[in-house]
Amino acid sequence: MKSMPVESLAHLLLPQEALLPLLSLAGLLMILGFRRASISLIGFVITAAFLPLFEPVIGALFDMLPGWAVLLLVVFVALQVLRFLGELLFGPEAWGSFFGGLLLALFLLPFRGLGRLLRWLATN
Predict the structure, then answer these.
(1) For 40, how many CA atoms within 13 A lie in the half-sphere containing its CB?
(2) Cβ neighbours of residue 35 under 8 Å, at least 6 residues apart?
(3) From residue 30, how far is each of 3, 35, 93 by CA, in Å?
(4) Scanning 40, 70, 82, 114, which has its CA 20 to 30 A from the CA of 29?
(5) Could you tell me the pLDDT band of residue 81, with boundaries at 50, 70 and 90?
(6) CB of 88 within 8 A of CB of 37?
């Protein structure tokens, strides 16, 4: 697996020119009383600002991992980002209920498919 150029992952998130307006938006959200959203946005801006510094190390670690481990790590990070955004938008309880139901449906999907296949084979 090849390493990405140093700035590509950081620019994938957002360009450097967008950091200051987002930080200003976070301050405005804090003034308006949206403290949780403001703190989350500040954390995102700080992470995006320092990501180019850590990208060579992250790239080297990803190069050492086998492909299946990188895929598992990417899926895990994507689920964590989805959980974070869901909790931010809908609250932890509502999002936990929705996400638990979604994971249960995904877990049961192969078993339901197998049951339908066996029922179809039994009727034919």
Answers:
(1) 12
(2) 29
(3) 38, 5, 23
(4) 82
(5) confident
(6) yes
